[in-house]
Structure formats: structure tokens, C-alpha cells
Design brief:
Layout (H helix, E strand, L loop, with lengths): L1 H36 L6 H10 L9 H18 L11 H13 L15 H4 L3 H10 L15 H15 L1
Helix pairs in contact: 4-7, 6-7
Length: 167
């Protein structure tokens, strides 16, 4: 009886597997036929992205027309250039209050507080190194204190203001 039971099980199991394979093949053919009937719609966003991907990296400018095109491209790039923060103001106090003080007043992310004791090891490096660290970032502080629109001169003015606060 056990041998007959095993044969019956293998027969049913084999039929189940064959049925699943047939079902899978039917689903594949149905999916292929449905996909063949679909029409791709024109997607403007997809077309724009494609056009941006195939844009040339650089242009070649030759002769007088090339010179004019190069000047126009330079003017467009200058117009797209980021503006300087705070209208280019070199007021260190203003820059400190709006940018630097956010972290240095509370010691966020390990920023040294505005106390002389917190700056002891840093002051020995000199003002130039402090300015360079502020420009390139140090530790958790991002470059230019997270404000890429700050100029080097503005950063130097804010560092000098901060050093004046320590005295």
C-alpha cells in the first residue's frame, strides 16, 4: 500500500508541476500580446531629459562667429553665477549673526563656543589657517559654513569679528 501511495503522490505532484509550467507559459504569452498592443505615449519630461543627456559637453568656437558665440556663452554663464551673500557686505558682525552664530553660540556639531578657553588650540594656528579652515570646512563644519555664496573676504571678515569677540 505504501508503494502505491508513493506512486499516486508522484503522479499528482508531477501533474501539478506540469500545470504550473503551462500556466506560466500562458501568462508569458498573454503579457507579450498585451505589451505589443500598448502604444508609447510621448512624455515631454522624458524627451527633455533625453535632450539634456545628449547635449555636448563643450562647444567649439572658430572665427568671428565663434568669438561672438563664446562671448555670449560667457555672458550667460556670468548671469547664472551665484550672487554674493548679503550683497557683498564685509560686516563681520552681520555675517556672524546670520551664519556663524547659529552653531558657535550653542556649540552645535562640536563648534567651539565663543569663549577664549574653547579656542586655545585653534588660536595658535593663526588667522590665515582659521580663515582657510572656514573656507574649506573642518570637522563637521561644511565649507564656507554651508553658504557657498560667501566670498573669501566675507569669511575673513567674520573670522576677524569672531576673534575680536574672544578678546
Amino acid at each position: 500500500m505504501s508503494e502505491q501511495h508513493d506512486r499516486e503522490f508522484i503522479k499528482r505532484f508531477s501533474l501539478t508541476i506540469v500545470g504550473l509550467v503551462v500556466f506560466t507559459i500562458v501568462i508569458i504569452f498573454v503579457a507579450i500580446s498585451i505589451h505589443g498592443k500598448l502604444e508609447l505615449s510621448d512624455n515631454p519630461a522624458r524627451e527633455t531629459a533625453r535632450q539634456q543627456r545628449i547635449q555636448p559637453v563643450a562647444g567649439v568656437y572658430a572665427g568671428e562667429t565663434g568669438r561672438a558665440a563664446a562671448q555670449a556663452a560667457a555672458a550667460a554663464a556670468a548671469a547664472d553665477a551665484p550672487q554674493v551673500a548679503f550683497d557683498g557686505s564685509l560686516d563681520g558682525e552681520l555675517i556672524y549673526d546670520r551664519v556663524c552664530g547659529t552653531c558657535h553660540e550653542v556649540g552645535a556639531a562640536g563648534a567651539p563656543l565663543m569663549q577664549a578657553s574653547a579656542w586655545e588650540g585653534r588660536l595658535d594656528k593663526g588667522v590665515d589657517q582659521l580663515v582657510a579652515n572656514a573656507i574649506s570646512g573642518i570637522g563637521a563644519m561644511p565649507p564656507r559654513a554651508g553658504r557657498p555664496d560667501l566670498s573669501d573676504e566675507q569669511i575673513e571678515a567674520s573670522v576677524e569679528h569672531m576673534l575680536g569677540m574672544l578678546e
